[in-house]
Specification:
Length: 238
């Protein structure tokens, strides 16, 4: 699994925080949830595992309404945390400390987005005694894995993404989502944090349109009775 990159004060690289999520739905379901006005992604895969520094669908507000677009997961890393100032950037996948200046530049409505998902993963804390790897656990709203959204931010960025072996210079459109305290369901697996999850159209509307004083109230744990552990993401049928 790719290593998580997360900016947390002076630290990047908090292994275990959500660095893999799953989307198993169709564009019509997303359209119905958020009243899309246009779609620029083409056909959406019937099942999509999303990893850091890879493209994924997001919904953002534009002058023409709500757009479903495909952006790359991982906001720009603070320059002081790159190996060298000109090193390729693999990005920061999730954001906790929104009071830090680096993130405050993207908290306005023009840089907010929501990220569709049906399940997300966290690594357990205790490695498997045989494989020596930490087990991967999955979470969804319930066993049917209905659609929800992460509260996200996005930006256009000029620079080099990827790695020294496979650099991708140019202009990029990037996103990340916010995290918050872990609730009682996630805490036994990952005690520090969980993604900020929006489960209805009213919350999505607030996140995409309200000023930050109102929108920041959504950076809170999802109530424990609205989240479940699941065996694995759903496989599409039909």
């Amino acid at each position: 699994m790719p290593e998580l990159l997360a900016y947390d004060g002076r630290k990047i690289g908090e292994a275990g925080l959500c660095n893999l999520y799953n989307l198993t739905t169709n564009q019509q379901a997303i359209r119905d949830f958020v009243a899309l006005t246009h779609d620029s992604i083409g056909n959406l895969e019937p099942i999509l595992d999303v990893y850091p520094d890879r493209p994924a669908p997001v919904v953002r507000k534009t002058d023409g309404g709500l757009e479903l677009a495909r952006l790359t997961w991982g906001m720009p890393t603070p320059v002081e945390h790159l190996k060298t100032p000109d090193a390729p950037d693999t990005g920061v996948t999730n954001v906790r400390k929104t009071w830090i200046r680096h993130w405050q530049q993207w908290l306005g409505v023009e840089h907010r987005c929501v990220v569709p998902a049906t399940a997300f993963s966290e690594y357990g804390q205790v490695p498997d005694p045989v494989t020596k790897r930490k087990p991967l656990y999955w979470f969804a709203l319930d066993q049917a894995q209905p659609l929800f959204f992460f509260a996200g931010i996005w930006t256009r960025w000029e620079g080099t993404r990827g790695s020294n072996r496979t650099p991708r210079p140019g202009e990029h459109e990037l996103f990340a989502f916010l995290t918050t305290d872990a609730n009682e369901v996630v805490k036994p697996i990952h005690p520090k944090a969980m993604p900020v999850i929006l489960t209805n159209s009213d919350e999505v509307e607030v996140w995409l349109t309200a000023d930050w004083r109102e929108a920041k109230a959504l950076q809170r744990p999802l109530p424990a009775d609205r989240l479940e552990g699941i065996e694995k993401p759903a496989t599409p049928t039909g």
